Amino acid sequence: MIDHETALARCQDLVALAQRMGADAADAVARANSSESVSVRLGDLEAVERSESEEIGLRVFVGKRSASIHTSDFAPEGLKALAERAVEMARHAPEDEYAGLAPEDRHFTGDMPELELADPAEPGPETLREMALATEDAARAVEGVTNSNGAGVSADRSVVALATSTGFARGYEGTGFSLSASMVAGEGGDMQTDYAQRGARFLADLPSAAEIGREAGERTVAKLDPKSMPSEKFPVVFDPRIGGGLIGHLIGAIGGPAIARKSSFMLGHEDDQLFDGGIDIIEEPHRKRGLRSRPFDGEGVACTPRKIIEGGRLTGWLTNVASANQLGLALTGHAGRGGGGAPGISTSNLHLPAGSVSPEQLMSDIEDGLYVTSLFGQGVNMVTGDYSRGATGFRIRNGQIAEPLAEITIAGNLKDMFRALTPANDLEMIRSVNVPTVRIDGMTVAGE
Fold first, then answer.
1. Which domains are delineated in the chain?
2. How many angstroms separate the CA atoms of 137 and 125, rounded?
3. Residues 6 or more apart from 292 whose CB is under 8 A from it?
4. What is the per-residue pLDDT across 283-293, written as a single tens digit (0 to 9) for each?
5. pTM of the complete model
6. What pLDDT, on a 0 to 100 scale, did the predictor assign at position 276?
7. Strand (E) positions, 284-415?
8. What is d(CA 384, CA 267) in angstroms, rounded to the nearest whole number?
9. DSSP state, 226?
10. Burial (CB count <10 Å: 0-12, 13-18, 19+), residue 385
């Protein structure tokens, strides 16, 4: 796999080629990844996989017309052909008065922050196999587990580089490791399945195989013999594993492109009190070893720490160049970029700070409610904010978690849900979006 310096050189070469072919402006992004994974099931090795990929994408501008194209062919002839096709495509594209490159005065400059994204450790297949086997053994040892869907470990190394005709040229490397297990409990039509998974930038930061395995087994067994519950309004408590999805819906609604298209339920509410006054949502792009840490965004603009929500209020829309130009706003460093296509919106590490009460205290006054541990279905309307998801979890009776539940639907509107959200104090910084246990009163639950 190429290193970030080689990837950056290829990007710069491609931008120069595009300009020689007639492009007025251009940018190129290169990504490379090498991955090794091992999966086991019922004590036997199931698969050992290794993959490598390299991709470079070019975006060119001819006047106000633009085109984007990508390839995995890094040879000089391949890059030349790519540049020729991109410029020709741009000449026939419709005009877009808003798209463009980030101006030079908004580029990330100076020394790279010390983010600790790349672990020098390179565990071999045998080490990964031992970790996977130990994880599955720990899960299968949990009383009540009857079968295994398997356990797996992966190790990834990635490179990203970006160069623009306005003078930006930087790149960096990172690593990622993950450990997971999925178990089965019960027999026949009464079978239940659940999982545990953890990712980290550094191998040493992963929990032990025993911890992940035990969590997978215990979560699965706890779901046996599920019931339903009446259809009415209840307090709903979200497990931290899934609560981050609520923050994800907010981010999708405050992205500049959605606002420019007028396709967001947040339109007209940017000055409202969205959450309780004690709620902040914080973005930390420079967190060391963060799963989404980055020094610059997909357009070369510096990523900076900020509060997305402060005192319950929105601090502003999240923009890339096109949406900032259309809305007449400043760039915020939130451009997201894949190998091809125009930039979208992406955030770095996010978290909802912990509240002042324990999860037990948060639930103590709930006579009857629902503790949600998993969600499924895509019933979220980002234009209206209407929210309806299938759910499984546990009944809350007299402040205590009781019997497991299944075949439940929870519904509400995200604006109302945000205003009613109360966090507990059990925040752990282990994901890319971290939230504590959260409670939302007054949600509609559809059951039996």
1. 4-221 (3.30.2290.10), 226-448 (no CATH)
2. 18
3. 285, 347, 348, 349, 350, 432
4. 999 999 999 99
5. 0.96
6. 98
7. 306-310, 313-314, 335-336, 344-345, 350-351, 368-376, 386-397, 400-413
8. 10
9. -
10. buried
